Amino acid sequence: MVSEYTAKPIIIARNVHKWYGHFHALKGINMEVKRGEVIVIFGPSGSGKSTFIRTINRLEEHQEGQIIVDDIELTHDLRNIEAIRMETGMVFQQFNLFPHLTVMQNITLAPIQVRKWDRERAESIARQLLERVGIPEQADKYPGQLSGGQQQRVAIARALAMQPKIMLFDEPTSALDPEMIKEVLDVMIELAKSGMTMLVVTHEMGFAKAVADRMYFFDDGQIVESGTPNEIFSNPKEDRTKLFLSQILSH
Amino acid sequence: MEPSPVLKAPGLLPQRWNPAKWPWWVIVLALAGLAITWLIFTSANYNETFIYLTTGIYTTLRITLFSFVIATILGLLAGLARVSKNVFLYNISTLYVEIVRGVPLVVLLLYIAFALFPVLVEVVTGIGKWGLSLMPANSFFQGMADFTIRVIPMEGRAIIALAFGYGAYEAEVFRAGIQSIGKGQMEAAKSLGMNYFQAMRFIILPQAIRRVLPPLGNDFIACLKDSSLATVLAVPELTQLGRLRRASTFRVLEVFNMVAFLYLSMTLLLSAAVRWLEQRMKILE
Description:
By secondary structure, chain A is an alpha/beta fold. Chain A has helices spanning about 1-5, 50-55, 80-85, 105-115, 120-130, 150-160, 180-195, 205-210, 230-235, 240-250, and strands at about 10-20, 25-35, 40, 65-70, 70-75, 90, 165-170, 195-200, 215-220, 220-225. The N and C termini of chain A lie far apart (about 50 Å). The longest helix of chain B has about 40 residues, at about 45-80. Chain B is built from eleven helices and no strands.
């Protein structure tokens, strides 16, 4: 039974389409992600990569096709959406921490209000998570008092506090100063090695080489090419992939 | 941090003695205030006027306080409805805001006091009479049938009318406050599994309310000034008492000097409080 459980994809996207008015943002995306897999999605801006991972927790609505997360299909049913969001953590480019709450309150709010844990349990898990992301001493500060890298690590801890089965990362290092990128990537690499299912939109190719199981190259709302990091880096098949990689790896 | 030694020596700051930068208006205002205060103690005329108007101050403050508390609650609910995706809530709140913003406040007061309340009383007595025809001698329906417009005091009608008007203004203040919070906050809350109600309560409103406190304070001052409109309903607040005093003594200058002085004292005190609040909000941001 265990093998059947692990072999079954936790995320299934079939022929997913999305329009913004007349703009066709996603043109039939197909993807299956198994438990514990780390997926890196990359591509030029406006290619639909962020839009796609935002459809997985329904921050964006898809208009055609099917998305099934952990055996629950995403429809207009609000209970399904909230159930999926409880199991799906998300880390944003702009951190989106709650500025009026302390780091501790940022992390414990959802476990207390949504998971209905008591405060003690939520706080003890929050302390473990702050330890894990390397900033246990910042618990009582407000987000505005932290550096960008520290804020993003709090955001990761906040998402993990809900004990999600899947973590979505939407360009988590793009808003960071260069010297802070590594501290966030180290946390993400540790998380990937711990067996978390991760979908990461990023241009950090070092991260992809280190931990990605598969990579997807998005362009113009479509998946142009996918493969293991080895295949993508050493032997890209499509010209568009080659061109894009040469542009981001040239310096 | 050590204060710099230069700042310790006042002689080194030439702009300190620059009369162009003095707040002359404060000095003029303070002198005028002192003059009227002095007159209250020395002139029998001013003294009597002041004593006569005192109850009007209480009435003015009472009207302002009650109507603004109701207006804030109404405004919060209507503001939430204005940003709601619910078609019914959005339309009814927008209708409310547009009607009130398009009608002069004094007309709204007259309308609610003299048109709306009598109609509501008609409805209540009508239901009472209908009930009595089904169940004669039922004391509850008898009470409704005997209800008359006279038992609703004008001060109460003024409070409801002002609350209704200011509720629409505060609805727009709250709407703007809620919409000023970045989209990412709602997305982060949703991504953690919170529903709309939880996200509003724990994430959006606490931030929005902090931002709208200064405009709410300004509207409270405006509401205090607009409470003078209750004079058209003959509510014995400060303005009405001033008009009565003028009619009985013909001492126009003394009476309206006193009325203006009393309003100014209240509004200036309140705006100092609002400015203090704004400073505190800046520190918290």
